[in-house]
Design brief:
Elements: E1 24-26, H1 33-36, E2 44-45, E3 57-65, E4 70-77, E5 83-86, E6 88-89, H2 91-94, H3 102-113, H4 117-129, E7 138-142, H5 148-155, E8 159-164, H6 167-175, E9 181-183, H7 186-191, E10 198-204, H8 213-223, E11 224-235, H9 241-245, E12 259-260, H10 263-272, E13 275-283, H11 286-298, H12 314-329, E14 335-342
Parallel strand pairs: 1-3, 7-8, 7-10, 8-9, 10-11
Antiparallel strand pairs: 2-6, 3-4, 4-5, 5-12, 11-14, 13-14
Helix pairs in contact: 11-12
The protein binds zinc ion.
Length: about 350
């Protein structure tokens, strides 16, 4: 599966590394049939590796996108090993895969978790992990949603601003929290900001959603002051649970996650963007174990439109937490954190 492999032509001959042969169906949340009847609109796009430009790939997982009536594939770059979705919905189309309450359900879940002892312990770890070692300065949160993190950092004395695509989230951050937020796709919105302007740029579970992560990382390098640090978290495709749960691994999240990083590939991309002193650590993520098991049990990916399924079962979390914590010590947990410095 090397030279010039085209995923579209390899439907019957693709080697499925993890031995998966059945398809997962990913349903559209809000049907808009009229838009899909226009044959002129390009709904899917085929891309080369975002890290090295190589078009040759190895097929890992196959998914069926129902509204597009097309297959898409999670593939690994034959040259550099970056894992990505190809073909993938175009920018014009990706919005239909984000249900209107995608962010609201996650935020609601965080609210519910405050009554659960294990969840409270976990949120405390998240807060400590996401607090920069520097005490104050200028901080930019990329993909800041409704600004909850920015507001908390402002309380600690940071001069904060954000970047966010979702219009409702931006409105809330601006009007209810009086935050400065630039709206738009990450790559372009960052391009509107002045260079050498921030001490810290944070990006929590955003890079895997970005169409051009290499460009986004270069822009982050540009807006950081020399010596400034980027702090980010992404799913960790090197987790052994990928092989266990395969297409039902919760952080696969097709087609919203366009990229899957490993400790090696995130280091490579940060290095190519100009960063130095790169450190990658495992992040305990028991919820990824609980929800992957739930998805495998129901033989269907988690439906983000259904808030009921996104529950943090106390027993499941209690069992999964120590397992995930041990995995994190070996950077094999389902999420990982990276910190890197702009050297010049
Ligand atoms: Zn590559």
């Amino acid at each position: 599966m090397h030279a010039g492999w085209s995923p579209i032509l390899s439907l019957s001959g693709g080697a499925l590394e993890h031995g998966t042969s059945s398809e997962s169906k990913v349903n559209m949340m809000q049907p808009d049939h009229q838009r899909f009847e226009s044959a002129e609109m390009k709904s899917m796009e085929t891309v080369a590796c975002n890290n090295c430009g190589c078009p040759d790939t190895l097929l890992l997982h196959k998914f069926r996108l129902e509204p597009e009536s097309q297959d898409c594939f999670v593939v690994r770059c034959s040259r550099c090993g970056l894992v990505y979705l190809n073909p993938r919905p175009s920018r014009d189309r990706i919005g239909i895969y984000y249900p209107p309450n995608y962010q609201a359900n996650m935020l609601n879940l965080l609210g519910k978790g405050k009554t659960n002892v294990i969840a409270r312990l976990g949120f405390g770890m998240v807060r400590r992990r996401r607090t920069p070692s520097k005490k104050t300065g200028r901080l930019l949160d990329v993909g800041c949603s409704n600004g909850a993190y920015l507001a908390a950092m402002r309380e600690k004395g940071w001069d904060v601003e954000g970047v966010e695509l979702d219009g409702d989230a931006v409105e809330y951050a601006r009007n209810s929290r009086s935050l400065k937020v630039t709206q738009g796709y990450v790559e372009e919105a960052l391009g509107q900001l002045a260079g050498s302007n921030f001490d810290v740029v944070t990006m929590w579970h955003v890079l895997e959603h970005v169409f051009d992560p290499a460009a986004a990382l270069k822009q982050i390098h540009r807006v950081l002051k020399p010596g400034g640090a980027v702090m980010l978290e992404v799913p960790n495709y090197a987790s052994p649970l990928v092989s266990l749960f395969k297409r039902y691994w919760f952080p696969m999240d097709i087609p919203r996650h366009l990229y899957q990083f490993t400790p090696a590939s995130i280091k490579t991309m940060l290095t190519r963007a100009g960063f130095k002193s790169i450190q990658v650590k495992g992040v305990p993520s028991p919820e990824a174990i609980v929800w992957s098991a739930a998805a495998a049990r129901q033989a269907s990916p988690i439906d983000f439109n259904n808030g009921d399924i996104l529950r943090l079962n106390p027993l499941g979390m209690s069992l999964a937490f120590p397992v995930s914590w041990v995995m994190a010590q070996f950077v094999m947990s389902d999420h990982m954190a990276a910190v890197a410095v702009r050297g010049d």
